[in-house]
């Protein structure tokens, strides 16, 4: 069965990533100018083959880095709109707004993609579900009881963060949600045991599980802030958590999936290997294979499995975590608990 053609929108995670993709060391000020002057363009075309179906995909890059989305929000919005038009001209019938392209699409919090005749997804449903499922599995592996645990969600009022909070509400003891500004802002209705904080380091230091979902141009906390034996799932692109190499915590990239076949775009998209993809891209691929951009949330996870996608497992940089990593964190948790007694 033929699915619908789709387009994935992405961008370099930072200037070093942009230089690595270009294969040069362009000085920063010049590189920023080059990115500013370059319109979105197609970087890869591919055929996605899954059990009982195929779909044609393209990858379009929006030449900006996350800092630029903050500094020139309307210039970046214009690029996202241009990329969507390009996707449509190339026959796409669904667009995925990956990484900061979704942030750029709503400057000052309001979506400005009205008027586009193309359905789009930010992929936050699957990204959040994959991140939360991975945290639950990691908790079991380090012997952490979920109902008594404290979870910090950095960027917890954002699209992915608030979905993670919703999925964990009532299943954990405490939820700390962070945001840059907390005055006159509230915890979303219906969340059980949730508090809002402006201090990412404080929230991370008190948590058994940290889910980092902030749209920030660089790390907000370091593994040095984590409790011994803590679990840290970093969903950010670029990452939210600087990894100092501590081996008594479990830290991994969150919200990733294994597609039914490796997808080699011919350049580094910021993942350990071509057998992995971002949860947002996976969501668009599943919708495209199903031929239904409006697939209800309840059917998404079943379609994900049926189409041969799987969770990514636990990746720390380029390395897949092993049972030893979980055992060390479990021992550190136990040691810290005994120290408290
Ligand atoms: N792993 C994956 O597959 C995947 C898929 C899609 C997206 N992503 C990444 O996930 C992240 C979140 O995406 P999103 O679509 O949920 O973005 P979003 O809706 O804009 O939410 C991000 C949240 O981060 C908060 N934030 C920004 N800076 C912060 C800081 N210094 N401290 C605390 N909170 C901060 C923002 O809140 P305030 O503005 O109120 O502070 C905002 O609510 C991005 O890094 C994106 O690139 C990953």
Helix content: 25-40%
Q: What structural category characterises the helix and strand content?
A: alpha/beta
Helical run tally? 11
What gyration radius follows from the Cα positions, in whole Å?
20 Å
Can you give a write-up of this model?
- This protein has 341 residues and is an alpha/beta fold.
- Helix content is 35%, strand content 21%.
- The chain has 11 helices and 18 strands.
- The chain has helices at residues 15-22, 28-37, 66-71, 73-89, 101-104, 124-141, 159-168, 200-205, 279-290, 297-306, 323-340, and strands at residues 6-10, 41-50, 53-61, 95-97, 120-121, 150-154, 174-178, 194-197, 209-212, 221-222, 231-234, 241-242, 250-253, 256-258, 277-278, 310-311, 315-316, 319-320.
- Strands 8-7-6-9-11-13 form a 6-stranded parallel beta sheet. The chain has a 5-stranded mixed beta sheet with strand order 2-3-1-4-5, with helices on both faces.
- Helix 6 crosses helix 7 (159-168) and helix 6 crosses helix 9.
- It is globular and about 60 Å long.
- The model has no long low-confidence stretch (mean pLDDT 96).
- The chain binds NADP nicotinamide-adenine-dinucleotide phosphate (NAP).
- NADP nicotinamide-adenine-dinucleotide phosphate is lined by residues 98-100, 102-103, 122-124, 127, 154-155, 157-161, 178-181, 200, 213-216, 220, 235-237, 255-256, 278-280.
């Amino acid at each position: 069965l033929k699915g619908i053609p789709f387009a994935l929108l992405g961008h370099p995670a930072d200037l070093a990533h942009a230089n690595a993709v270009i294969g040069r060391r362009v000085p920063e000020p010049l590189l920023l100018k080059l990115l500013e002057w370059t319109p979105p363009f197609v970087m890869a075309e591919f055929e996605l083959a899954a059990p009982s179906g195929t779909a044609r995909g393209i990858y379009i890059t929006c030449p900006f880095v996350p800092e630029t989305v903050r500094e020139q929000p309307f210039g970046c919005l214009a690029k996202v709109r241009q990329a969507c038009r390009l996707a449509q001209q190339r026959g796409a019938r669904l667009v995925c707004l990956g990484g900061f392209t979704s942030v750029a699409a709503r400057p000052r919090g309001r979506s400005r993609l009205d008027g586009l005749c193309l359905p789009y997804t930010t992929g936050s449903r699957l990204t959040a579900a994959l991140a939360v499922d991975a945290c639950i599995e990691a908790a079991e592996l380090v012997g952490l009881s979920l109902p008594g645990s404290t979870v910090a969600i950095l960027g917890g009022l954002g699209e992915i963060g608030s979905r993670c909070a919703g999925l964990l509400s009532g299943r954990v003891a405490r939820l700390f949600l962070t945001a840059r500004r907390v005055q006159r802002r509230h915890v979303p209705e219906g969340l059980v045991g949730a508090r809002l904080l402006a201090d990412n380091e404080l929230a991370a230091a008190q948590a058994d599980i940290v889910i980092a979902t902030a749209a920030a141009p660089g790390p907000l906390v370091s593994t040095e802030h984590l409790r011994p034996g803590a679990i840290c799932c970093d969903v950010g692109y670029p990452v939210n958590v600087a990894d100092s190499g501590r081996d008594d915590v479990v830290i991994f990239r969150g919200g990733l999936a294994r597609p039914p076949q490796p997808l080699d775009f011919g350049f580094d998209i910021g993942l350990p290997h071509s057998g992995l993809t971002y949860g947002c891209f996976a969501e668009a691929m599943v919708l495209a294979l199903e031929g239904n951009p409006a697939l209800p949330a309840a059917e998404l996870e079943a379609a994900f499995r049926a189409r041969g996608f799987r969770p990514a497992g636990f990746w720390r940089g380029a390395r897949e975590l092993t049972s030893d990593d979980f055992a060390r964190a479990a021992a550190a948790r136990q040691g810290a608990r005994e120290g408290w007694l």
